[in-house]
Amino acid sequence: xxxxxxAPQRSVEECDRIMQSPQSPLVCDTVTLGKRRVRAYRNLPxxxxxxxxxxxxAFADKEYLVYEGERLTYAQTHERVLRLASLLHARxxxxxxxxxxxxRNVPEWAISWWACHLLGGVAVAVNAWLTPEAFYxxxxxxxxxxxxxxxxxxxxxxxxxxxxxSLGCSSLLAARAPAPPxxxxxxxxxxxxxxxxxxxxxxxxxxxxAIIFFTSGTTSLPKGVLSTxxxxxxxxxxxASGKVRAILRKGGEIPAPDPNAPQASVLLTVPLFxxxxxxxxxxxxxxxxxxxxLMHKFSPSLGAKIVVAEGITNASGVPNQVMQLLEELxxxxxxxxxxxxxxxxxxxxxxxxxxxxxRLPEATTxxxxxLTEVNxxxxxxxxxxxxxxxxxxxxxxxxxxxxxxxxxxxxxxSAAPALAPGQVGEICIHxxxxxxxxxxxxxxxxxxxxxxxxxxxxxLGYVDEEGFLFIADRAKDIV
Length: 479
Description:
The protein is of the alpha/beta class. The protein has two domains: about 10-45 and about 225-475, Rossmann fold (3-Layer(aba) Sandwich), CATH 3.40.50; about 50-205, Rossmann fold. The protein contains 16 helices and 22 strands. It has helices at about 10-20, 50-60, 75-90, 105-120, 130-140, 150-155, 160-165, 185-195, 230-235, 235-250, 275-285, 300-310, 320-330, 350-360, 385-390, 440-450, and strands spanning about 30-35, 35-40, 65, 70-75, 100, 120-125, 145-150, 170-175, 185, 210-215, 225-230, 265-270, 290-295, 315, 340-345, 365-370, 375-380, 400-405, 425-430, 435-440, 455-465, 470-475. The strands form four sheets. Strands 4-3-13-12-14-15-16-17 form an eight-stranded mixed sheet, with helices on both faces. An eight-stranded mixed sheet has the order 9-8-7-5-6-10-11-20, sandwiched between helices. A four-stranded antiparallel sheet has the order 18-19-21-22, with no helix packed on it. Helix 10 crosses helix 11 (about 275-285) and helix 13 (about 320-330) runs parallel beside helix 14. The longest helix has 17 residues, at about 75-90. It is globular and about 60 Å long. About 50% of the residues are buried.
């Protein structure tokens, strides 16, 4: 029998008002950022560095990263972060310099990420699965001062060492590579040989450049997407908004942080170079002092064993990964502590929501819609709203606006007519999470971003009377 969720106890509008009350952690202020006027979350750290330093101190003794037989607490991770930051600083990395990271999900990925941000650098997250041509393209156009890769990526770039040096790359580090190609240093050996020294930390604010992630490059070379500290950090509350709204819709209140609650944990099956893996999980779990369990390669059977052994509370992935994981869990759910199933990055199986409810009736299912250019989440929802509308992508978070316009409408988006609910058009997104634009590609930036901060997604969809977004099709082939 198909499950019919109960009617919500609060309207969408009532929930939005509660989330914008002064005491709400999701409350926004209207701010002007250049030509952009946006609603920005009030309760955000000023920088990614501040976020990490706060969590590293507050959760020092908690487990942070688990990878196969390795376990690191926040304090142990921070010791490695400080050592790497000191090494990079000694080799000339300063505020605004790019530090490229290209690895599968291993602890060194997160260590490199936080070390870059301690220096006020711009972290460049390169897709580790790209072809050699596309991989080198991403590295060369960003001209990193330092490049940190794993053994597989070191082999790909081995023939390009001289070219990388000519681009100004002064440090080439290879993690988990006992004998890397000539020109690369083993990551651990370089850190152990370096005597850490204190270094001045430059002032870093919300509007400073922070990250470069890349579009998928389906039929062309990937484009770099440049974002500021605020644009990245805004996803902290964009991600949380779906679950918060689900609680409010059932008549509950926004939960206050509970220092005595069991540690949240995620089985991360999505790459850290992807906005879902990074912005929606690395960021969110680090803020709350959670544990992040990494896998060398996704395996449903191994993943199910990890869920039980590690007491995982949140399983994430693209829909087919989550479905495969569900099917491998014990039929009686014995030992399973999952509270949330989160997925995105593709349309879910028609039977996934119902299957999840049957197997884990106490767990909350959630999904959303987003893009690299909006730093992950553009819409999200969870719980009964999702079960009642499994073909929707949810509602915009409190700081985000959606606008559906005719696909043929010229720029700027702000001047285009908004289509009525139910009418299919191009999905446009506005908010503090919308990126600066494409790295050193003014023409592409002008076509996708207007001066007021609207982004044209290239996706076709519509909203219903309550604001729930439904995807209809792609308006363009290149993401």
